[in-house]
Amino acid sequence: MNVETAFDLKDKLLEDFKKFDEQLNGQSTSVFHGKRKSASEEFKLLSFPTKKHEEWKYTNIKAITEKNFDQNTSDLLLDSLSNSLNEKIDLAAYLPEGLDADVLVFINGEWSSSHSNVSHADGITVKSLAVAIAEDTDLINEHFGKYAKYNDNTFAAMNSSFAKDGLFLHVAKSQAIAKPILCLYLNDTSKGNQLSINRNLILVDENAQVQIIEGHYNLNDDNFSLTNNLTEVLVGKNAKIDHYKLQLENDKAYQYNFCQFVQQQSSTVHTNTVTLSGELVRNDLHFLLEGEHCDSFLNGIYLSDGTQLFDNHSLVDHAVPNCMSDEFYKGIMGGSSKGVFNGKILVREDAQKTNAFQSNKNVLVSDNASINTKPQLEIFADDVRCTHGATTGQMDDEALFYMQARGIGKETARKILLRSFIGEVMERMNSKPIVDYVNELIEAKIETL
Amino acid sequence: MIKIENLQASVDGKEILRGINLEVKAGEVHAIMGPNGSGKSTLASVLAGKEDYEVTGGSVNFDGKDLLDLEPEDRSREGVFLAFQYPIAIPGVSIANFIKTAVNEKRKYHGMEDVKATDFLKMIKEKMSLLEIDNKFLGRSLNEGFSGGEKKRNEILQMAMLEPKLSILDETDSGLDIDALKIVANGVNKLKSDKNASIVITHYQRLLDHIVPDFVHVLLDGKIVKSGDKNLALELEEKGYDWIKEEQKALA
Question: Taking CA atoms, which of A64, A76, B73, B140 is between 20 and 30 Å from A106?
């Protein structure tokens, strides 16, 4: 028997960073790269979480950290150009019908200009972060890395040390974007196990409005993929964001996803996380409400089967009075899949008159599936209204029988019940093309459960 | 239409039906009355095919078929309809979609194509006006937040749309005020023909003022112990069930 030293992803990534650092010539002294270096220092001190880590108790990532993943660490702009020489990928499957959007395509974490299609409207900057680092340096230096904290978060530190491309979106004051922004993150594993690091910075100024859709896919299943996606969103006074994250990678895909919203006064955010595939998906969705009279809506749907593990962690930090947050997540788990829901609501001492709601409901459709759900309320203010609830159940036999007694076959009845269970979250989504697109995917997934 | 012979059933090992014999012919209305716990609802559930009940003996012949051998959905498709005492709420499923699915499942079973959307709408609107149901009803989630009267009217609407041969109405009067009861009973009467039949299960006589039975049976301890015409129901209303129990004791 061969005894090999277990491969360690962290060591490999530190090596990668060294090479990355060395090959940067003119850029190596930039403010931006300085931030990457600090993150790398932090990454060096941290280790990938094990099940001993409270926040990772139910999510074992050994399968990830024992694998070797390569990323493209060579010069960014050149890569973007070389991507444009790539064979044309048929994007039809990733474009929701009826969605007239500006499309940004990222392949293995790098912007592909030839696949992207961005219109240029006044007051709106939509571009690759790699380009923005050069062209919008002041904005980048002011905001990049300011909102998403990477202390005690290995994946965030990792993302921050390798950040080089992703979406840069800036909507200027009082602009309403007519076209939604669609980001497609595509993993190509044809050359080996692939690490894709996406780093997004979204700045929506006062009174501005925007709809953003993010879709995660694999182009092939030759090898494994690891996606590390980090998004910082600054939501200005009275601004409105309608956000969708569609996680549709394959069963050789692992994904870590961290999204930090910072909301200023009277802003509104709707975020919808739909996880239908991927072998392991971990989401950290954080909200900081730092201006009064904000509304935050966090909707989530997850349907798992096989050996999939979908882990949704969220934190809503009510730092000031008079805000409302409403979190509503529903999941169906089949096969021997696992679900994790951990929803933390933090109401700080000053945050009087906070309204915070949270609900997580699950249906287990097989004996081997499981869910660990944990609402976590930390309330330091006394005049607040917080409600939370979590339920986990099996199929409702009474409802099944009722439908059978009307001549509806058991299998059909089951599907109708599962669809209607998820339908309650779907009703909260605003975009008709996305709702139609997701409904179709859910329909297909329910067939397999 | 249906011939029940020596039907015995138990739940969790406890015997509830202890040899039921009943024959219902097309065009007839049979009422089954009895005190609480006599097995009335069990009989309805066993005929509809609820899994919780184990049939331990006897047979049920429905239009030449062995009813007990059929899955619940096939019993429905063959023409058995159970109006539930407690209809189930299914959030997110509209009444219109639910009934359309049920109608099409039945049609498929009988080798027919799906009903055309326009025909379906026309048909359901006709039945709704027959049952004095508001059009807004169609878009509502099935039984969600319904009043007792709305739930029961919804049951009868489904019955009207599925056009069963045999309807079993399980305590349809429970939870209804007199006005709602009249509307529901009127609906049932309007759907009555010489080709279909009903079994009306009830605790009280008052429903039978509106749905007049051809036969009344008294169920006691899982057995039909007395049968008669509609006057038997009136007698039970007046005297209760004790005199029948006494009669049974004397016979024993």
Answer: A64
Distance from CA of B24 to the nearest CA of A (A): 20
CA distance B156 to chain A (A): 12
Report yes or no on A446 lying in a domain.
no
Taking residues A173-196, report their average pLDDT: 93
Domain spanning B2-251: which CATH class is it, in words? alpha beta
Q: What tokens were used for B200? A: 């009306």
Q: Does residue A84 lie within any of the structural domains?
A: yes
Q: Which of B47, B75, B101, B104 to mutate to test the interface with A (most CBs of A within 10 A)?
A: B101
Q: Which residue of A has its CA nearest to B48?
A: A405
CB atoms within 10 A of CB A348: 17
Residue among B165, B226, B192 nearest B33 (CA): B226
Distance from CA of A298 to the nearest CA of B (A): 20
Cβ neighbours of residue B147 under 8 Å, at least 6 residues apart? none
A421 to chain B, closest Cα gap in Å: 7
**pLDDT tens per residue across span A231-273:** 999 999 999 999 999 999 999 999 999 999 999 999 999 999 9
Which domain does A100 fall in, by range? 9-291
In chain A, residues with a C-beta closer than 8 Å to the C-beta of B49 are 404-405
Q: What is residue A357's three-state secondary structure?
A: strand
ipTM of the complex: 0.95
pLDDT band at A2 (very low <50, low <70, confident <90, very high): low
A421 and B CB contact within 8 Å: yes
Determine the pLDDT at residue A81: 47
Within 10 angstroms of residue B131's Cβ, the number of other Cβ atoms is 21
| A168 has a pLDDT exceeding 90 | yes
- Residue B76 and residue A404: Cβ atoms within 8 Å? yes
pLDDT computed for residue B131 by the predictor? 85
Bridge partners of B225, per DSSP, are none
From B168's Cα to the closest Cα of chain A, the distance in A is: 11
* CB–CB contact B73 A409 (8 Å): yes
pLDDT digits (tens, 9 = 90+) for B72-106: 999 999 999 999 999 999 988 999 999 999 999 99
Q: How far is CA B162 from the centre of its chain?
A: 13
Question: Nearest CB to B102: which of A406, A423, A424?
Answer: A406
Report the candidate in B63, B14, B25, B38 with the shortest Cα–Cα distance to residue B199: B25
Within-domain flag for A343: no
Q: What is the DSSP string of B85-147?
A: SSPPPEEEEEHHHHHHHHHHHHHHHTTPPPPPHHHHHHHHHHHHHHTT--GGGGGSEETTT--
What residues of A are in contact with residue B67 (Cβ under 8 Å)? none
Contacts of B98 in chain A (CB under 8 A): 403, 406, 416
Q: Which of A404, A414, A427 to mutate to test the interface with B (most CBs of B within 10 A)?
A: A404
Vertex B150: Cα angle to B147 and B152 (nearest 5): 110
Q: Considering its fold, how many domains does chain A have in total?
A: 1
Spell out the domain ranges in chain B.
2-251
Pairing of strands A102-107, A110-111: antiparallel
The verdict on A417 touching B (C-beta cutoff 8 Å) is yes
Average pLDDT on B151-166 reads: 94
Task: With respect to residue A73, please indicate whether it lies within any of the assigned structural domains.
Answer: yes
Q: What are φ and ψ of residue A133, in 5° steps?
A: -60, -35
Q: What is the pLDDT of residue A78?
A: 46
